[in-house]
UniProtKB/TrEMBL annotation:
InterPro entries: Metallo-B-lactamas (IPR001279), NDM-1-like (IPR050855), RibonucZ/Hydroxyglut_hydro (IPR036866). Residues 19-228 form the Metallo-beta-lactamase domain. It comes from Streptomyces azureus. This is Beta-lactamase.
Length: 248
């Protein structure tokens, strides 16, 4: 199986899984993997590593933007099989262990089931493992502050709201922002294209999610790699402002 891999900058790849993206940051054959898609995306995940000349054994670390199953999918597989460390913001570590779950409720989905795209999204999420019990047994908080000593030298940026410990990853060397679900450019349940917040039902605390757009607007990046939707080229500051206007 070939994965939908797009090289967007030197050593930087955006991969479109089934409704969710992940990012590969490469230095030689060593890589940092940001997010891992749904549990059902594993074949695509492994194929994407091969397509950039790497392998699961060469993954230096998995960085997770937030611990929803469509981003956490194969993190525990890589940790248990290859000893790959899985890093998250300290507030997201217990979420990854499934000590609690900040996720859209069945009731919220039912109340929104009339909206275009919601029912097909639900069917896909169920088939892809979106509701399975999929904890990471031994997730770890970031080992240092600032730039992480990993391929790509990503800098975690705490952007709470979607979940308490949601983090984007800033790549100052390439002007790239890996935004996770703090700022996206599309989603199967959204009827608009371009920079936006996810629909309200997906956020644990929507006001904090809106406020986190101001954090992203302080960055001078020119390339946005979202958790959902296509790459967005252009000022991240402008993208964050546009998403904020749409959210108000």
């Amino acid at each position: 199986m070939r994965a939908d891999v797009h090289q967007v900058a030197d050593g930087t790849y955006l991969v479109h899984g089934s409704n969710t993206n992940w990012v590969i940051l490469a230095e030689g054959d060593a890589v940092t993997l940001v997010d891992t898609g749904y549990p059902g995306d594993r074949e695509q995940l492994l194929a994407s590593l091969a397509q950039v000349g790497s392998s699961p054994e060469a993954v230096a670390a998995v960085l997770i933007t937030h611990a929803h199953n469509d981003h956490l999918g194969s993190a525990e597989y890589l940790r248990a099989t290859y000893g790959t460390p899985v890093y998250l913001h300290e507030a997201e570590v217990p979420h990854a262990r499934r000590e609690f779950l900040h996720q859209v409720s069945v009731g919220a989905v039912l109340r929104n089931s009339w909206r275009p795209g919601v029912l097909p999204w639900v069917v896909h999420a169920l088939r892809s493992g979106g509701t399975t019990h999929n904890p990471v047994t031994a997730p770890e908080p970031f080992p240092e502050t600032g730039a992480l000593d990993l391929p790509g030298r990503p800098v975690p940026v705490h952007t709470p709201g979607h979940t308490d410990g949601h983090c984007a990853y800033h790549l100052p060397g390439t002007g790239v922002l890996v935004s996770g679900d703090a700022l996206v450019s599309g989603h199967p349940t959204s009827r608009v294209d371009g920079p936006q917040l996810l629909p309200d039902m997906f956020h644990h605390e929507r006001p904090r999610a809106v406020a986190s757009l101001d954090v992203l607007a302080e960055l001078e990046d020119e390339l946005l790699l979202p958790g959902h939707g296509p790459v967005h080229r252009g000022s991240v500051k402008d993208a964050a402002h546009r998403a904020r206007e749409r959210a108000l």
